[in-house]
Amino acid sequence: MKHHTIQVRSILAAFASREEYVSLRLLLGADWEVGFAPTFPTAEAVLQASSFGVVICAAYFSDGHCWKDIMREIQRLPLPPQLIVADRLADEALWAEVLNLGCYDLLTTPFEPKEVLRVLPMAWDFWKRELEQAAAHPKPTEPCGSLSARSRSAAPVRWKPSKCQPGARADPNNLRKKAVRLDS
Question: Number of C-alpha atoms within 13 angstroms, CB side, residue 103?
Fold first, then answer.
């Protein structure tokens, strides 16, 4: 199996504010390739067209979309990038919700340089290890008649995140993913 090495660390910055993107770009320097998506629809299109190891996004967009929408798009990708949420009012409840729903971390804005330079490389390295592991150990394909193939043919039960509501925070003492049928 051919193994390739990733030379450029690439991230997508999904912020309505160009200032946050510029701030992030200046902090990271020339060693990073930083894409910019000022809206959710732009981020959605860029994620489908390009590969990133990390996505850092605003908790809420002005059009009503939020980080959960970005998360849903990321989960559809073959090797999802790590998601970091950024918010000016990052509190314990949002931090707990972000981590419990599978994001890599929550950062406050304006960005604290030391924290950005600590968290982003760790998230990218984590994604890179997952990529290398997936390349080294591809998932086996199963014959159509196998038991596991038949059991997967039933309607899947997947987690469906709640709607985005700025200011509405999850109770950090009771964070559980609820399984719902998407076909209902």
Answer: 28
In this structure, which amino acid lies at residue 30?
A
pTM: 0.74
Q: How many domains is the chain partitioned into structurally? A: 1
Using CA atoms in the order 153, 162, 99, 34, what is the torsion angle rounded to 10 degrees? 90
Alpha carbons 74 and 80: distance in angstroms, whole number: 5
Query: Is residue 2 included in any domain, yes or no?
Result: no
Specify whether the CB–CB gap between 107 and 83 falls below 8 A: no
Give the range of the structural domain holding residue 40, as residue numbers without chain letter.
9-181
Q: Give the model confidence (pLDDT) of 36-60 as tens digits.
A: 999 999 999 999 999 999 999 999 9
The alpha carbon of 3 is separated from its chain's Cα centroid by a whole number of angstroms, namely 25
Q: Specify the pairing of strand 82-87 against strand 54-58.
A: parallel
112-to-15, 119, 120, 127 alpha-carbon distances in Å? 16, 11, 12, 22
Rounded distance, CA 160 to CA 149, Å? 23
